[in-house]
Input
Amino acid sequence: MNIYILIDYVPMICVLFGLIMTWKVESARWFFISCLTLEIFGLAMTDIVMQWNTHFYIYCVFISLVFLLPIVYRKRLAMWLYSKTGYEYFNNVCKTHRFVPQEAGIICIAILACTINFVTWIEVLLYKYSFLSNAPIKLYIRDNMVVFIKVMESCAMVSYACRAEFRERFIRDENC
Output
């Protein structure tokens, strides 16, 4: 099996692991459920966008930006869902939500992914329209960077999961 195909599934495995590990921690569970939804969407779209050839890389930029949504809008979405449903779970998520270093790491990783994919997209366009005779970033750099990005994203997810229970206890003690 090709390592590049296998590496696409590693973040989902880490998200599932994190979800199982942090099921009792409401804010972490909400984070992992949000990430799992986007991972499933990303993997479901893979077969379709792989056929795009040239514009596949701009899709990768888009999907990297979409992966920022659980970090940036998770609390707002929980507040909105609480106001619509009255379900206490979403209120607890709002109360215990804190921005943590792992989320900052995921943001940096997503920005790196956007950058490498955008540069690759520009390079492929320049190559397609004969402005470049070769596409070295696409051929030699991008795939290895994507592997690095996926591994770092997975490490950040596992780190988030490992620290979630401690963080939750700290926040609850802080609020008492």
Remarks:
- The mean pLDDT is 90.
- The longest helix spans residues 136-175.
